Amino acid sequence: MTYQILSKFNYYYKVFILVNVIIYYLYVPCTISDSNIKQALEEPSTTIQVSISIDKIPKVNESTILQFDIVSIYYAEDTKVQIDLPSDAVVINGDITWKGNLLANQAHKMSLEILFETEGKKKITCTATKIFDESNSWGDLKSLFLTVGSQFSQLGYPSMIQDKSELLAEAEIIGEGETIDSKESYPASIQNSPESLEITTEPSNPLIKQRKISNEKPLRSDDGSLTIEGRWQFYGRNSSLESEQMKVYIVRGDNNKILSICYTDENGYYSCGPFGNPGSAGVRSVFVTSVTYSLNRDTLRVINLDTKNVFAYTTPSVKFQDGTRNIGSYFIGKDKENVRAYWLQKDLIKVWKFIYHNAGKYQNPKVSAGSCTIRWKADSEDGNYYNLGGDIYLEADAPLSNTVVGHEYGHRIMYGVYGNCFPNDNCPSPHYIGLASNTTCAWTEGWANFLPLAVNNDPVYRWEKSSRNLETTYHEGWENGDAVEGRIAASLWDIYDQENDNLDKYSDQTFRKIWDVLYSQNDNTFKEYWTARKERGHNVDDAINCLLENTIDYRDNGNDDDFGNTCYGSYQLLNNQALTGNIDKGDSDYFKFNIYRSSYVDLHTTGTTDTYGILFSCCDGSPPSTSCEVIRSDDEGTGRNFRINEYLYSGTYYLKIRHYNRYTGSGKYILKFSSSN
To answer: What pLDDT score was predicted for residue 4?
Structure first.
């Protein structure tokens, strides 16, 4: 009896433990260990990588030697390298330009001996590029930052802004009032600023209503009150004046006490007040990289990596008479080292608006992209990655890309909609947009690569000095399938966009369907996402061609073949690759490969199937025309296998494999491809 009681106790105890374990994994947010955070959520690396080193930190008129290493993971013909130096740098030995061919995974080294003739901040930049066309290039940009003095020099810039004039904006239109001070009392930023001001979310536009607050009790217009109007702008990436809804502080000119807070509109215009007129102390308008929305109290901001404060530019101190007064139109100039912080802020806002307007406002309750903070500074070497559950960290030159913010914010969004949980993707470091990693990494990165394309309504993913048009089917050196993040990003883009190309003839016509699937469950792979898309009633029968266009095959019809049967859906071959195929009755399998420089190519099959191979130099139809044909082969290989061994010039080639008996023949084969390329 005692034994039976103990046995039952042990049984129910084990059941109790098992149930609790299941509950834990179902309801407790998942985490990634700290050691994996940066590695897992980095931006994809570029094909060409640049690194800079320096043998010593020089003082004024003291020489130093710079070393530049340029490496490409592929053979890169006609690569150009440009080294940009400060105007006071004197080149003692070495070249600042180079053009030539980069061999795969072999560093090209450049050495430069220089000295600086004056003190101050110094920026040395090396750019390497191989351009294919206006939207496709390989390249990288790296910068080295120094502060050079007569007695002391250091890597990087001083942690705090020393020159107060850096914070003074430029006047486009001088306003009313009497200017008191143009330089002397400006803080590096507004510290410990209140965040109670928010932009109220409206059904049609989340940015049309504002609530203003003041730290001083507003007075009647005839009893010492003041309202300040004006405009704020900044020079953007394209060297034109831009603006966006951002926060404006009106502060006292003598002690920086906040008098009123408001927001600009999307064109930079604002009206702050009324508040008590400080009289002879004057007021200043301060434009900062921050915005808060009433929906979920989302706050978007860009903060200085050193000071942890938002970036700020200011007008001069101006004294006004009571009433509504215009302080003028001011802008942040092209030469201001922190102007790029405003580019990043605008990118954050653009992503937030896109999610809200194209998906979130249609949900019940309404949802948003969530709060996000970017940590950046003008000489930052920390980036580019999203720190899981924390902030985005970006390098100094990252703002040159109009996709990096959307990519890293995309990781933040996935983490949020997954319930503060993120798939354990084990992404390699570095990982590449066109190379296979694993199916989980490819999914998390593929989503993040796609999001900025949708936000920008542009299929081109851009790094600082490199770009890739994901609308293009042909990508040099790309691998195939759903372990490749670029293939997933391109598939999502083809589902989203309305352009027809090759196999892709479908469009969702909206972002809402893509978002609905992402938001509704936590998928670890693109395959799981695709299954969920079908389960939620969204089109997969036609949309499957968007995936096939990008070498991802999720067809579940047993009669479907394993490789595309037109040259438009060709499977990308890699050098020294062997793969297994299957020919059904009446079936053809198409493959393609790239030759970067003239070389011998060997293509052949092995096995018992009677294979027939045709090589084409172009894809101008289905099948390609005879003008594209290079050579045919029947039994030149072992047994009844075809074999093609040819010297080919650089270009893209297409291989068609079918059974010798094209109508009734079937069977398996192993295809082998090698090139001296």
So the answer is: 45
| Type of residue found at 112 | L
pLDDT for the residue 502 = 74
Considering the entire predicted model, what is its pTM?
0.80
The pLDDT score that the predictor gives to residue 183 is 54
Provide DSSP, 97-160. EEEEEEPBT--EEEEEEEEESS-EEEEEEEEEEEEEETTEEEEEEEEEEEEE-SS--EES--SS
Secondary element (H or E) of residue 287: strand 283-288
Query: Per the structure, how many domains does the chain have?
Result: 4
Q: Which domain holds residue 237?
A: 164-345
For 201, the token pair is 């979310």
Q: Terminus-to-terminus CA distance in the chain, angstroms?
A: 79
Q: How far apart are CA 630 and CA 653, in angstroms?
A: 9
599-606 sheet: strands from edge to edge: 577-583, 667-675, 599-606, 643-648
334 and 440 inside one domain = no
Residue 108 near residue 30 (C-beta atoms within 8 A) = no
Tokens in use for 670? 């192993």
DSSP assignment letter at 438: -
Q: Return the pLDDT at 388.
A: 93
Would you state the pLDDT for residue 574? Answer: 82
- Determine, yes or no, domain membership for 512: yes
Name the phi and psi angles at 350, rounded to 5: -60, -40
Write the CA distances from 622 to 75, 551, 663, integer angstroms: 31, 18, 17
Distance from C-alpha of 85 to C-alpha of 148, rounded to nearest angstrom: 14
Q: What is the 3-state secondary structure (H, E, C) of 373-434?
A: EEEECCCCCCCCEECCCCCEECCCCHHHCCCHHHHHHHHHHHHHHCCCCCCCCCCCCCCECC
* Residues 138 and 182 reside in one and the same domain: no
| Distance (Å, whole) CA 484 – CA 470 | 13
Instruction: Report d(CA 36, CA 14) in Å as an integer.
Output: 33
Which residues are registered as beta bridge partners of 252? 283
Ranges of the chain with pLDDT below 70: 1-40, 160-166, 182-223, 473-474, 476, 556-561, 677
Helix, strand, coil proportions of the chain in percent (round to 5)?
20, 35, 45
Both 140 and 253 in a single domain?
Answer: no
**What tokens appear for 403 in the block?**
């996709």
Q: What is the separation of C-alpha 318 from the centre of its chain, rounded to a whole number of angstroms?
A: 41
Measured CA to CA in angstroms, residue 247 lies from 100, 212, 636 at distances of 49, 11, 73
- Would you state the pLDDT for residue 223? 55
pLDDT of residue 209: 40
Amino acid at 142: K
